[in-house]
Design a protein that fits this description.
Length: 314
């Protein structure tokens, strides 16, 4: 009985193992390569799959999701013979599990080496300044080459990114000094523009102020001239309305002579010829006044004495 029990146990174990090998559960977004006696048979997709135990074997399980692989920094020489270190990141996805298994031994290593050689070829045709400012151009060129080369491997390169481009330390110091000089230059230009604009605005303000002052003075002079003209017309009309005689005119003419001589600038002034006639008229008027005041029994003498005898109000 003991050998029979042992055989039954062995059969149960074999059946259990056969069931395990027969039923294959493939996760979502995954695929499995099935070989029969070492030859590719089929690709198992996601879900429950049945294989022939001990005949069919699972060669490889492949993740069909998009993968991200960072590559270590690679030294690359630019067109102007400068060595820069470039870090790259590749976003790829397996589209054909059979090709990714049988067309290339290690597609990760193949993609890395292809990325390095393609990157050196692209950067070798650019100088340092263009390399630092043309990341999108480099990414597009690198992605195009990789996508074309990896298509037969069942790989689709979705995106290529340059994480960092590190020039030599001496070049970094020179670039920093250049950027500092450019910033100082822009600051000096902006300051000069500000001073220039300030001077322009100040000049415009002084110009407008001078124009307004001149206009005000012109209006004031016009108003003064108009007032003086009006005053002259009023005096002229008053004189003509009063019908003055020669004596009054002579007296007013003499009163105006001191005003003509006023001022420090009047070093020399000319006496008009009409002053002789005015003096003659005035002397005649004074003579008549003296004859009236000195005649005995004149009517004005008592009045003068009365004014002298009038007591003071103090």
């Amino acid at each position: 009985m003991a050998p029979v029990i042992i055989v039954l146990i062995i059969l149960v174990v074999l059946v259990f193992i056969a069931l395990i090998k027969t039923i294959q559960v493939i996760p979502q977004a995954s695929a499995a390569i099935v070989e029969r006696f070492g030859r590719y048979t089929r690709t198992l997709n996601a879900g429950l799959n049945i294989v022939v135990p001990f005949i069919d074997t699972i060669r490889n399980r492949i993740d069909l999701r998009e993968q991200v692989v960072p590559f270590p920094p690679q030294p690359v020489i630019t067109q102007d013979n400068l060595v820069v270190n470039i870090d790259t990141v590749i976003y790829y996805q397996v589209t054909d599990a059979r090709a990714a298994t049988y067309e290339v031994a290690s597609y990760i290593q193949a993609i890395e080496q292809l990325t390095v050689t393609t990157l050196r070829n692209i950067i070798g045709g650019m100088d340092l300044e263009r390399t630092l400012t043309s990341r999108e151009e480099i990414n597009a060129a690198l992605r195009g080459v990789l996508d074309e080369a990896t298509g037969k491997w069942g790989i689709r390169v979705n995106r290529v990114e340059l994480k960092a481009i590190e020039p030599p330390t001496s070049i970094q110091d020179s670039m920093e000094k250049q950027m500092r000089a450019d910033r100082d230059k822009r600051a000096a230009i902006l300051q000069a523009e500000g001073v220039r604009q300030s001077e322009i605005l100040r000049a415009e303000g002084e110009k407008q102020s001078a124009i307004l002052i001149a206009e005000g003075e012109a209006k004031a002079a016009a108003l003064r001239a108009e007032g003086e003209a009006q005053a002259i017309r009023t005096v002229f009309e008053s004189i003509h309305a009063g019908d003055p005689d020669q004596k009054l005119l002579s007296y007013q003419y003499l009163q105006m002579l001191p005003k003509i001589a006023e001022g420090d600038a009047n070093k020399l002034w000319i006496v008009p010829s009409e002053i002789g006639d005015a003096l003659k008229g005035l002397s005649g008027a004074i003579g008549n006044f003296g004859s009236l005041g000195g005649a005995p029994g004149g009517g004005n003498a008592p009045a003068a004495s009365e004014r002298r005898e009038k007591p003071s109000i103090d």
